[in-house]
DNA sequence: GTATTTTATATTGTGCACAATATTATTTTA
DNA sequence: TAAAATAATATTGTGCACAATATAAAATAC
């Protein structure tokens, strides 16, 4: 009887593990982000803006680059965040091709509430000090992998 | 000047790394799966079926469980695979609530072509023998994480 | 200085992902 | 055994993800 090829088994595939882990992790964020009225990708965009500073002016392309997403994903996402009142989208008068994204006051205020999210998440996950080592190791390996996957 | 909180930085967030890694990995699969006329989630479903054996009868729920996806994702995906001719969807006469999913001959044949995908992928990634250790370590840590994320 | 090319963003279309709800069949209970 | 509860799948609606294309502005070439 021919054996089923090992490398084709779901359990042996890194990609499926990444896919599962990513979705499971996002699921853990969801109830926390619901309270901020954000989806996970929206939260990512807000983090890019918060991290760039309250007065920062980012282009759509800047945000796409940092998150490795394309305009087809980001443009409508930014429109929804603008509709929520968290940011403004204004065409740059200096270069009419560009659209400048800036935090509104409400978008800035949201950061205060968002700061609690990472800690709350750890708590929900039940992370102890002894897990820190594994966590750091995992993040190191993931960084290497992402690096290699993008050449 | 108040320092920006470390734990809110994108680079320090495991979830973003998982999200990036998962998308980057799927991107690497895409050109290979295009040749099989499959998307990555469709490829996952086919792997579940192949792994269960050519004659296996799986319910929609079985597939949802193995991939940790819900029916809202899987039902239309199965319809597309059925339209491609890779599987059949037949309501179980024993229990009319259930829908039995079975591979067609064409779906079985596709496995032969799919067997090349994992190796081709490694090749594209430029994986060497010395990477095996890191790979095993990463997969171990990911398995642990997924396990914990689903209680 | 106009034509060409490049750059930045938007639009369209398909396929997930998932919450919420609906539908229908089976099982359990009163 | 009729009603209630449970189970299996489907449907609906919103929001990504991304390829392909469109649009328009700026840069460059000629």
TrEMBL record, chains A, B:
InterPro entries: HTH_MarR-typ, MarR/SlyA-like, Transc_reg_Sar_Rot_HTH, WH-like_DNA-bd_sf, WH_DNA-bd_sf. Keywords: Cytoplasm, DNA-binding, Transcription, Transcription regulation. It comes from the Bacteria. It holds the Pfam family Staph_reg_Sar_Rot. Residues 11-147 form the HTH marR-type domain. It is found in: Cytoplasm. This is MarR family transcriptional regulator. It comes from Litoribacillus peritrichatus.
């Amino acid at each position: 009887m021919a054996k089923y090829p090992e490398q084709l088994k779901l359990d042996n595939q890194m990609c499926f593990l990444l896919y599962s882990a990513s979705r499971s992790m996002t699921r853990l964020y969801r109830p926390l982000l619901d309270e901020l009225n954000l989806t996970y990708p929206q939260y990512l965009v807000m983090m890019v803006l918060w991290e760039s500073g309250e007065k920062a002016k980012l282009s759509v392309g800047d945000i796409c680059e940092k998150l490795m997403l394309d305009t087809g994903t980001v443009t409508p996402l930014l429109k929804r965040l603008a509709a929520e009142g968290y940011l403004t989208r204004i065409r740059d008068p200096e270069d009419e091709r560009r659209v400048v994204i800036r935090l509104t006051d409400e978008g800035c205020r949201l950061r205060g509430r968002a700061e609690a999210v990472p800690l709350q998440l750890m708590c929900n996950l039940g992370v102890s000090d002894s897990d820190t080592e594994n966590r750091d190791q995992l993040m190191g390996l993931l960084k290497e992998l992402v690096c290699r996957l993008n050449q």
